[in-house]
Amino acid sequence: MSSPVTCLNRIEKVGTIVDILSNTSTNHNGFPVVVQVSADDEPAKLCGLILRSQLIVLLKHKVFVELARTRLTQRKLQLKDFRDAYPRFPPIQSIHVSQDERECMMDLTEFMNPTPYTVPLETSLPRVFKLFRALGLRHLVVVDDENR
Question: Which top-level group of life is the source organism from (predicted)?
Fold first, then answer.
């Protein structure tokens, strides 16, 4: 586990996603998706988990909308688009995103897993280890009693 946790907002700026995926110090393959519930410094609430490979496919197919027109429907992806990229997803360095596209927004809601496996803060390490082994998990999100 690393701290601070690298999270994405449910509706995130394309430039932020590209910067996170391009950051060589973090090679995470899964990112918690959060929604900010209040304006103060309170931690955001977990609403899902999205994989690096999914984000790369979304960027490759340019599934985002301009900031000024966020009400427009974005390009729809098919399951086939994700299958075609599997198992050799392109590296983030091969995805070109222009400066204008970096200002666009991406809604992760329909692509994220809305029910990722989670454990409370107080969960013991042996229990976490058993979960990883028994369920074959790659990602496990640790949350507090208010799902933050």
Answer: Eukaryota
